[in-house]
Design brief:
Immunoglobulin-like
C-alpha cells in the first residue's frame, strides 16, 4: 500500500540518444522514456538502433519485505490483500541491477547500456 502498485520508470539508452526504447514490445520513446510500470511484473526493455543489433534486457522485480510488513502491521489482512493483489508488495530490484537507481519510493532511473552497438558520438 505504501508506494502504490506502479512506479515511474525513466529509461535511458546510455550514450545512444537515437536508440528506440521498447518495453514489453511497445515503443516508449527514443533515447529516453518515462512511463508508469507495474511493480509486480518483469520489465522487458529492448533497444533498437539502425546499424546495430537489437538488445533486450529483463529486469525482475523483488519483494518489498519492509513495506509489506509495515502494511500488514498497519492494515492487517486488508493490507496483506491489497499489497499482494495490486502488486504493491514488489519493486524494481535496484540492489541487484546496477542499471537501476532508486530516486524515491515511486521513481526509478534505469540506464541501459547498449552493449551490441558501438558509441556513435564521434561520427
Amino acid at each position: 500500500m505504501f508506494g502504490g502498485s506502479k512506479f515511474v520508470g525513466r529509461i535511458e539508452a546510455e550514450d545512444h540518444p537515437n536508440a528506440e526504447i521498447y518495453v514489453d514490445g511497445r515503443k516508449q520513446g527514443t533515447g529516453t522514456s518515462s512511463e508508469l510500470y507495474s511493480r509486480n511484473r518483469p520489465l522487458v526493455v529492448e533497444l533498437r538502433e539502425e546499424g546495430c543489433e537489437n538488445q533486450t534486457i529483463t529486469f525482475q522485480p523483488v519483494f518489498r519485505t519492509g513495506n509489506f510488513v509495515l502494511s500488514v502491521l498497519t492494515w492487517g489482512l486488508i493490507g496483506l490483500g491489497v499489497d499482494l493483489g495490486t502488486g504493491a508488495a514488489y519493486k524494481p530490484d535496484h540492489k541487484r541491477y546496477t542499471e537501476i537507481t532508486k530516486v524515491d519510493l515511486r521513481y526509478f532511473d534505469i540506464k541501459v547500456p547498449y552493449e551490441n552497438c558501438e558509441t556513435r558520438s564521434n561520427i
